[in-house]
Amino acid sequence: MLKKYLLAPGPTPVPPEVLLAMSRPILHHRAPEFAEVLGQVKEDLKWLFQTRNDVLTLVSTGTGGMEGSVTNFLSPGDKALFVNSGKFGERWGKICAAYGVKTEEIKVEWGYSVDPQLVKSALQKDPSIKAVYIQASETSTGVAHPAREIAAIVKAHENTILVVDAITALGVFDLKVDEWGLDVVVTGSQKALMLPPGLAFVSVSEKAWKMADKAKNNKFYFNFKKERESLSKNQTAWTAASSLIVGLSEVLKLQKAEGLENIFARHHRLAEATRQGMIAAGLKLFAKGTPSDALTAVEAPAGFDGQAIYKNLRVTYGITAAGGQDQLKGKVFRIAHMGYADTFDTITAIAAVEMVLKGMGAPVNLGSGVAKAQEILLKKLN
Ligand SMILES: *Cc1c(COP(=O)(O)O)cnc(C)c1O
Fold first, then answer.
1. Do domains 16-257 and 259-381 have the same CATH topology?
2. What is the number of other CB atoms lying within 10 angstroms of the CB of residue 207?
3. How high is the pLDDT of residue 380?
4. 191, exposed or middle or buried, with CB in 10 Å at 0-12, 13-18, 19+?
5. Which of 10, 27, 236, 346 is most buried by a 10 A CB count?
6. What is the mean pLDDT of each run of 10 residues along the chain (382 residues)?
């Protein structure tokens, strides 16, 4: 027997009470029982997003939410600025190109956080830029970007909105959507929201809704104004993914019981233990900028293949983590500590990495990373 552990940066494990809730008989999406669930979820999502804005729930993965955040606010020929510091930043550029949106790109070396001053000067140079697209947490590199500082810059531009891919940030670390002025914030179900893949969530500010009134891009399925109208009646425009939303209502109950501050503190504690544990095991962290508390990207030791480490974790120990993407393939492996994750997920991950490396003949003192993580995890509990 090989017991399975899911420690990937999406999908993430689903708590048993949520799995049970989703196994209940299907609710019809126009039935009053479902409207009641959606009405509650609608309010709880605002709590999670720290916003009074509408939070739309779409049946798609996160990328659908990203695509809608281009088509609903911009017209062909409009200009957008995007930060490209990895696989997901690059995606903003690809979506804009698919819809005829002209782009200005801030290219950041993989592993680094963007300097907000670059956003400031780009907006000063070209005031026709209507939207700035960033990641709060770039999952391909395990790096966080300064969303708050960027928001303060964009806020000063009356005709520019800030769109944040917070797919591995929301529910991981603090993002004050209203207070900081994050106009559009996108997340997905299978990361910190502890659900199976299949839902995207998008919050939209008044500033962004005004832009949506003028946007002329083609869209049909991801029509945010139509979704907003439906949501005001506790409905969705199309058939709702009702079982996922029932699961979501359980997730939000768990999250509210824990509290936002505790959720952020837990993620930080696990991330810190993972980072320090990996360093104590003799490994190097990939992040040179601010590391994201959602996941840790670790460099494969010289002469060892990151993909082989990732594969051995799975084959030998039943642990699904993640390898590197694109240019990082073979160079890093990534371990998540996001969503339904706690002390012994972290211990398990570090212990397994040490055992895999030992098995591959890498120089590692078994237990050194685990001991360091235990120290951190003990201290922060008291
Ligand atoms: C997972 C993820 C996405 C969305 O990917 P999907 O496969 O569409 O769910 C987008 N951005 C970031 C930063 C992510 O981590």
1. no
2. 19
3. 63
4. buried
5. 346
6. 97 98 96 98 98 97 98 98 98 98 98 98 98 98 98 98 98 98 98 98 98 94 98 97 98 98 97 98 98 98 96 98 96 98 98 98 96 92 54
**In this structure, are residues 320 and 4 in contact, taking their beta carbons and an 8 Å threshold?**
yes
pTM of the model: 0.98
Evaluate: CB of 292 within 6 angstroms of ligand 1: no
Every domain of the chain and the residues it spans:
16-257, 259-381
Tell how far the Cα of 165 is from the centroid of ligand 1, in angstroms.
8
16-257 folds as Aspartate Aminotransferase; domain 2 (3.40.640)
Q: Is 325 in the pocket of ligand 1 (CB under 6 A)?
A: no
pLDDT at 379: 80
Q: State the DSSP H helix or E strand holding residue 319, giving kind and residue range, or none if neither.
A: strand 319-320
Q: State the CATH class of domain 259-381.
A: alpha beta
Q: Is the minimum distance from the CB of 188 to ligand 1 under 6 angstroms?
A: yes
- Interval between CA 245 and ligand 1 midpoint (Å): 19
Q: Is 84 in the pocket of ligand 1 (CB under 6 A)?
A: no
Each residue's pLDDT tens digit, 255-304: 999 999 999 999 999 999 999 999 999 999 999 999 999 999 999 999 99
Residue 117 Cα to ligand 1 midpoint, Å, equals: 26
Distance, in Å, from the CA atom of 144 to the CA atom of 289, rounded to the nearest integer, reads 7
Question: Of the residues 83, 145, 168, which should be mutated to test ligand 1's pocket, given the most ligand atoms within 8 Å of the CB?
Answer: 168
Closest alpha carbon to 198 in 358, 5, 7, 11: 11
